[in-house]
Amino acid sequence: xxxxxxxxxxxxxxxxxxxxxxxxxxxxxxxxxxxxxxxxxxxxxxxxxxxxxxxxxxxxxxxxxxxxxxxxxxxxxxxxxxxxxxxxxxxxxxxxx
Length: 97
Prior knowledge:
Elements: H1 2-9, E1 13-21, E2 33-44, E3 47-48, H2 53-63, E4 70-82, E5 85-96
Antiparallel strand pairs: 1-4, 2-3, 2-5, 4-5
């Protein structure tokens, strides 16, 4: 019985919040290199650590395309839930031209 109670307290879940896609370009003209960057933020008991994680992902993505432009760009944001804590994730994908 105790094991069942313990397992119910440490279960996890994921929640997908939003996705944003730049649709300004014609999708048939996507010549270039696909690049990706992601970052995460750990939150415990409502206290957030590393609050600059989205900017870090953006810097990482821009570093992969130093002399070009990134377009179109897709951004997704989701959360992995845990016991008394969660992780916020951001994933950026784009085409470097």
